[in-house]
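Page 37, continued from 36.
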């Protein structure tokens, strides 16, 4: 079974990439941000110019052409479907588990102030650690779970005041 990623390039082109297909591309790191890539017997020079890991958006230059690339995995798609996507007009007052998993860590407590994108908790699911970030600025009203507990999809995790 392979992971599939939704990749948008320059907000105009959209591709589905399977991780096993990506692993077949011959890539050599030539510096911290530069790579030599060979795909289908064609050579490319790639450089990562900017990276916004929280939003999974990258600016890359391939053979002197610049691209803005956004990458979404299965969890990102589920979170977007639940209304947590960036730019959503919803006022999020509760965080629910996007999938079943095990709570590895909880970074907040009742009464704590948080800013947008602050880490709230870490959920292990499908052998991956997923950091659940705050969708907005606010104050934590309740934390409904404890570290080490298993949670079901849709289970209430955190409420905001």
């Amino acid at each position: 079974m392979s992971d599939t990623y939704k990749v948008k390039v320059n907000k105009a082109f959209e591709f589905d990439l399977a991780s096993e297909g990506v692993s077949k591309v011959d890539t050599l790191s030539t510096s911290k941000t530069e790579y030599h890539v060979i795909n289908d017997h064609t050579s490319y020079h790639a450089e990562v110019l900017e990276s916004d890991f929280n939003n999974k958006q990258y600016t890359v230059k391939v053979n002197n052409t610049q691209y803005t690339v956004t990458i979404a995995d299965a969890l990102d798609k589920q979170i977007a479907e639940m209304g947590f996507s960036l730019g959503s007009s919803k006022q999020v007052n509760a965080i629910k588990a996007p999938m079943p998993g095990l709570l590895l860590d909880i970074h907040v407590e009742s009464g704590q102030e948080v800013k947008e994108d602050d880490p709230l908790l870490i959920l292990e699911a499908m052998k991956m650690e997923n950091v659940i970030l705050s969708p907005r600025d606010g104050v934590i009203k309740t934390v409904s779970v404890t570290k080490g507990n298993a949670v079901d999809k849709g289970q209430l995790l955190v409420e905001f005041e």
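The radius of gyration is 19 Å. Flag for discussion at group meeting. The chain has two domains: 4-72, 74-160.
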